[in-house]
């Protein structure tokens, strides 16, 4: 699943009004999305080497690339939400 390049301005503005608990849950979900994307990328890397056919290797390379892109985009959103978390002095 590809996500937008970071959170939109309205999403970030809304996040500033979340409680620390709500913001923490949102950050947790983003961390899970990033972990899932990293796993997809890793599985694709293995598949691109271990695939039985050229088609399987090509499909795995695509999965690896999409996982890497998705992970990077989710990572940007995660950075933005973590910055808000720090600004609010949540702990």
Which features would summarize this protein structure in a list?
single chain, 91 residues, mainly alpha, 0% strand
Word description of this protein:
The protein is an all-alpha fold and 91 residues long. The chain is built from 3 helices and no strands. The protein has helices at residues 9-15, 20-50, 54-87. Helix 2 (20-50) packs antiparallel against helix 3 (54-87). The radius of gyration is 16 Å and the shape is elongated. The mean pLDDT is 89.
Helix and strand topology:
Elements: H1 9-15, H2 20-50, H3 54-87
Helix pairs in contact: 2-3
Number of strands: 0
> How would you state the average pLDDT, rounded?
89
**What class, by secondary structure content?**
mainly alpha
What is the assembly state of the chains in this entry? single chain
Morphology: elongated
Concise summary:
79% of the residues lie in helices and 0% in strands.
